[in-house]
Design a protein that fits this description.
10 strands, alpha/beta, Rossmann fold, two-stranded antiparallel sheet, 6-stranded mixed sheet
Length: 292
Amino acid sequence: MIINYGGTDTVIDLETQKDLIAKTLHDIGKRFSKVLVLPPDITRLHSGAGEITKMLYEMIGKSNTFHIMPTIGTHEPLSDEHIRIMYPGIPRELFIVHDWRHDTKEIGIVPSDLIKKLSEGKLDYEIPIQVNKILLAGGYDLIISVGQVVPHENTGMANYNKNIFVGIGGEKTINRSHFLAGVYGMERIMGRINTPVREVFYYANENFLKNIDILYIMTVKSKNDKGKLVTRGFFTGYDKETFESSARLCQKVNLTKLKEPLKKVVVYLDPIEYQSHWLGNKSIYRTRMGDS
C-alpha cells in the first residue's frame, strides 16, 4: 500500500487528493511514457473518479501517451455528453471503448472445484477469465484503475480487481461470476469484503495477472451532517490490503443497519446516471442486505 488516508470524520478536499496522487506517482519510482487509466462510467458520476482522472491527465497526460478506457462492463459506451459531464476538459480522442463481446482475451480458468466450494455445492462450472486485449498488448508501462469503494450486490464491495474482471471483462467472466452471486444470495454478499465472487477475482489476480502491475486509486465517500457527499478515504497501491483497508472504512460510513425490515422504500435514481430499468434495479438490490 502506498496511501492509506482517511477516517469516518475525515474530509479530503480536491487539493489534498491532488497532493496524494502526486505522492503516489513519486513513490512508485517508475519511469513511464504510455499510460492507461481505467475509470468508471456515468453510473459512478458521484464517485469523484472524473475529477481524479482529470488530475491524472493534467499531471501526466500531456507529456505522455495517455488513454482512458471507462470500465463499462456490459453497460452502454459513454456518449459524448457523458464524457463532457463526467470528464470535462479531457480530449474526446483519448477515450477508448471497451467491447465486452469482441475485444477480450482469455487469460486463464478458475477451476470448477473452487466454484463448487464457493457456491456451497450449488454450481460446478469453470469460470474463464477474460480481459480486454489492450491490458495485455497495449504496451502500457503504467496502468491505473480509478474508482470508489461502495457496497455492491455482486462482489460485496465494488472496485479493486472487480474494475478489471468485470469493468473490462468478457462475456463468460461477467455472466458466470454474476450468476455465482445470484445463486449464493445477494443478501449474504452486500457490503461484505470477502465473498464468493471476490474470492474468484482474488484467484484470477494471483494466478493470471501477476505479471501485470495495476495501480489502484480508490476513494470512500459519504454524506456529511449537511447532506453533502464528501470524500472520507483515499487509498492507493497495488495490493489486496489497499482494497481491504478502503473496504473496512466503507463498511463504517456506507452501511445503515436497521432494527426491523422496511415495509416500503422509495428510491430516487439520478436520470443522468441511470438510463435503463436494468440499471435501476440497483435501487432494489441495495436495500436487501441480509442480517449479520
